[in-house]
Design a protein that fits this description.
This protein is of the alpha+beta class. It has four domains: 179 residues, PPM-type phosphatase domain (Phosphatase 2c, domain 1, 4-Layer Sandwich), CATH 3.60.40.10; 105 residues, Phosphorylase Kinase, domain 1 (2-Layer Sandwich); 179 residues, Transferase(Phosphotransferase) domain 1 (Transferase(Phosphotransferase), domain 1), CATH 1.10.510.10; 32 residues. It has 13 helices and 15 strands. α5 crosses α6.
Length: 506
């Protein structure tokens, strides 16, 4: 009962940006720890152990989470399919002994199934007291009957009682009338109905906003400072350039970006204002406006960043990144252009235009600025927390030195990464502890970087007292294996020449 109540209470409190298996895993591991703690503290004679099967529907997909010997079935096109496996010992005398269950072990291992929903799907969740007594044929006969789910569930339990079933009999039936849409689907529908506005000028009115000035322009977006006519609040309006008016992917992408940005409530990000369909007649979204400048603008105005400045920026940037990663969002484009300092030096991370999140199903390409892209991404690996942390490390390195740890990388290049240049070569006043942190952050191998944004923040927060493992130069077998073979070949040739000389001399 506690496991079921725990899921109902905690699953719906997880962010929408979490993938369903990830949300299940976080919630169920917490419940499992509680069951173990209660077993050892209060119920020494009786362990709190339970089977658990759950089905979550989101958009046009379903996910099954399962542990134990309860079962989940799917009836589709009049064919009944068992979706779960029984976690019992495979011996005749131990068929009812669980080998995996909630509260049984500290290391919780659940089975997950992720698949596509179809209209008319019927899910059946039953305890072993039902499926063992009735069997698949009897259960399918009831599911095939054109009845309401609650009536079917009641009849299943009644039939078990009629057959004198001795075990707990629990049944749940779920019928799918029609699948829902994904976030991408809803964005696609809305994008088709909202037109990209023409290029705006100061003084123009767009819906309920007066345009004040153009803040930023790129191939992919336009940012305007606007004023809400009713409230007089200054805001930032983001839209697409008119050249992309027929690009459905870009139009969908802007609305997906809006959805992601709205899901983040943090002082380290601009806040997106909700707009109803009646308030918005063109393709754009609006967010809070803050005075100040990006780090890139500060650099262009020759601002000198002290060690203290850089450390404080690094800490705040790490906290912003931690917020994203806890929501299962990978930024993928961290660089000075996307980091804003307001007039009070408060930091905000900008631009989720290429952010990666399972809920948005957007992972195409290798976005970002080449010099800030992690080495593994050039080999086709997917972006991760470690690749974001690499970009954070490069950003701080660049703030302090105006150089890149592996040199500047052009868009057309496929670079070879060897060893990062120590930042003290460009700026000798950088202390050793900070150099260690920076070199660890930009390590070529992702496993040698910081594991989490929180670890990065703690290391910087401890300042010179930070217990940071000194950066160890990678052995030649890792950093440049080709050079190792070349050296071996040269040595071999020299030895052979020496032997030949000795033979001829003899």
């Amino acid at each position: 009962e506690y496991s079921v109540r725990g899921i109902l209470a905690d699953y719906y409190a997880t962010p929408d940006t979490w993938a369903i298996p990830y949300a299940f895993d976080r919630v169920l591991r917490s419940i499992n720890r509680w069951l173990l703690a209660q077993s050892f503290s209060q119920y020494d004679a009786h362990r709190l152990v339970s089977t658990l099967s759950a089905v979550a529907l989101r958009g046009d997909r379903f996910v099954v989470a399962h542990i134990g010997d309860s079962r989940v079935y799917l009836l589709r096109d009049h064919k009944l399919r068992q979706l779960t496996a029984d976690h019992v010992w495979d011996k005749p005398e131990m068929q009812h002994v669980l080998k995996r269950a909630m509260g049984l072990d500290q290391h919780l291992v659940l089975d997950y199934l992720d698949d596509v929903l179809q209209a008319g799907d019927i899910f059946l969740l039953v305890s072993d007291g039902v499926w063992e007594v009735l069997g698949d044929k009897a259960m399918q006969a009831l599911l095939d009957a054109a009845q309401e789910p609650q009536q079917i569930a009641d009849k299943l339990v009644e039939q078990v009682a009629a057959k004198k079933g001795q075990d707990n009999a629990t049944a749940m039936v779920l019928k799918v009338r029609r699948p829902g849409g994904t976030n991408r689907h809803y964005a696609s529908v809305e994008a088709k109905h909202l037109a990209v506005p023409e290029r705006l000028k100061a003084g123009q009115i767009l819906d309920q906003f007066e345009v004040l000035e153009l803040l930023h322009e790129s191939q992919n977006s336009l940012l305007y400072r606007v004023r809400h006519i009713a409230t007089q609040q200054q805001l930032v309006l983001k839209t697409l350039p008119p050249a992309l008016r027929d690009d459905l992917a870009s139009r969908e992408g802007l609305l997906v970006e809006e959805w992601l940005a709205k899901s983040i409530v943090s002082r380290y990000f601009p806040q997106v204002l909700p707009l109803s369909g009646k308030e918005r007649h063109s393709l754009y979204y609006v967010m809070t406006f803050h005075d100040g400048a990006t780090l890139q603008q500060h650099l262009q105005h020759d601002r000198h960043f002290s060690i203290t400045d850089a450390v404080q920026i690094g800490i705040r940037l790490g906290k912003a990144l931690g917020t994203l990663h806890r929501m299962n969002i990978i930024h993928r484009d961290i660089k000075p252009d996307n980091i804003h300092l307001d007039s009070e030096e408060k930091l905000r991370l900008l631009d989720l235009g290429v952010a990666l999140n399972p809920a948005t199903m957007r992972s195409e390409g290798r976005p970002g600025t080449p010099s800030f892209i992690a080495p593994e991404l050039f080999s086709g690996e997917q972006a991760s927390c470690q690749s974001d942390l690499y970009a954070v490390g490069v950003t701080l390195y660049y703030l302090l030195t105006r150089k890149y740890p592996y040199g500047e990388i052009e868009p057309f290049q496929h670079p070879r990464f060897t060893e990062p240049v120590p930042p003290t070569r460009y700026r000798p006043d950088i202390p050793q502890w900070l150099e260690n942190i920076l070199l660890k952050a930009v390590a070529k191998n992702p496993s040698k970087r910081f594991a989490t944004a929180e670890e990065w923040v703690v290391s910087l927060g401890k300042a010179e007292y930070a217990v940071t493992v000194p950066y160890r130069q990678a052995p030649l077998t890792e950093s440049n294996p080709m050079l190792l073979w070349q050296m071996g070949l040269v040595i071999s040739v020299l030895i052979n020449l020496l032997l030949l000389f000795l033979l001829l001399a003899a």
